[in-house]
Each structure stands twice: as structure tokens, then as C-alpha cells.
Known about the structure:
Blueprint: H1 3-27, E1 35-41, E2 44-50, E3 62-63, H2 69-103, H3 109-112, H4 116-121, H5 129-138, E4 153-154, E5 160-161, H6 164-176, E6 180-182, E7 186-187, E8 193-194, E9 198-202, E10 207-214, H7 220-235, E11 244-248, H8 257-268
Parallel strand pairs: 10-11
Antiparallel strand pairs: 1-2, 2-3, 4-5, 6-9, 7-8, 9-10
Helix pairs in contact: 1-2, 6-8
Amino acid sequence: MRKNEIIKELTARATRLKKEIKKAEKIKGSFPEGRLRVSRNGKKTRFYRVDETKDKRDKFGIYIPVAEKELVADLAQKDYNREFLRLAHKELKGIEKSIRALSAPDADAAYQKASPTRQNLITPYIETDEMFVKKWLDNKPTQNALMPEGRIYDTRSGEKVRSKSESIIADILYDLGIPYHYEKPLCLKNGRTRYPDFTLLDISSRAEIYFEHFGKLEEWDYACDAMAKIEEYKRNGIFLGKNLIVTYETSNYPLSANATREMLQAVFF
């Protein structure tokens, strides 16, 4: 997780804390006097109101009859309210301190603020996103030797893919600026090599995400092979919703470009 994302999450948490602190502060004077003491003896539970204005010798308090359930609940809420405020103020103070620290210029600025001339002379200690993406894209995968003549559909990035739907997906990835390789070899634990349709780069985490499109799910054998592939991925630590994306279609339900774009935007942005 990058620093800006951490600051965003901390800021959201601080906003929520401030809202709830304000609510708790507003009602803290409306509770009855005293605090709640709970006593358990076997299966029986008894409640007592302890007078906070007296000395510690009155630590046992006055028994609260069963009929006075609202008083018990009010005292319990009062105790919670007090402890919540104590911890919430402490947490908020820590969050605000962390936000101030994270908002300060980071070490990357030593390179980023340098002029282009100086940048060309420098080897930064921390690789920038641009450098990482370029190196990842330049590391061209070995082309899948299986039926190379099947790659007949053009894409905006200049490469060819095997189906019209894959060309649509490739163009969406290109438009969104999501780095990808087509049919990049993936070596599995059993030594077998798979060629996911697309291998995507999540720039923020610098992790690879695999993208499979299943285009003939109305065909029984094809659907069985698709399920077997997903199960094989699972055995290799590649899980749907984590580092595996899947789209699918049938003759009656073709691939939706808009839905695919929205899905990718939700995952990457």
C-alpha cells in the first residue's frame, strides 16, 4: 500500500472518530449517577450501582432490582461511553500524528525534484513507478508457441490476440493505462507452464494479477476445462477476487465492454 493510500485511510478513520467523539461527548452528561458493577455467582448475574462520589470503601454499590433493566443498560452505556472517549481521543491523537509524519516529503523526492538533466545522471535508490513499469514491460515474455497463426485480431497496443473479445479487453487495458502482457508464461508448482490470457501489473502494489477470459462457456468440454484451470490456479495460490480476474461469455451473453471496464476500474483505481 502506497503512502497516499495510507493517508487516505487514516484520514477517513480520523473523520469517523471525530464524528463519533462528538456524539459521545454530547450525551455523556445525560447518564444516571454512578457506575455499573456486575457480579456473577454460578448462573446468576447481579447488577449494582456504585456511587462514584464516595470513597473506595463503597466499592460494592447498591443492588439494582431486576425490574430496573433500563438503569442497568444506562449505566453500562455510560461506562462504555467513558471508555470509548478515552480510547478514541488516544487513537485520534496517534492518527493525526501519523498523518503529519506521512505528509512530510519522502525520500523519493530527492530524485523526483531533480531536473531532467540530473535525473539522467542519477541511479535512484528507490525505483520510481515509471521505472518499474518500463522494466516490467520491457521484459517481453516468450511467445506462446501454441498455434501462433491463431493470433489474428489487432489491438491498439500493436500486438495481435486470438479472439475479438480478447482484443476488446486488450484495448480497455490500454485505454486505462493498466500495464499488461499477453500470454505471458506462468510456471506452476508441478512444473507445468500455463499462459494466462493477460498478466496485469498492479502498479500500486507492484504485484501481478492474472486475467482469464472464457469465451465458450456454453460448450460442455470448454466449461469443464475452464473450471479445471481455475482449480489449478487455486492450488498455486492464485485465487479469484485476489490475484485472478475472470470474464466469460456465451453466444447468448456476449462480453460487455462497459462492464469489463467498470470491473477493471474498481479493481485498479
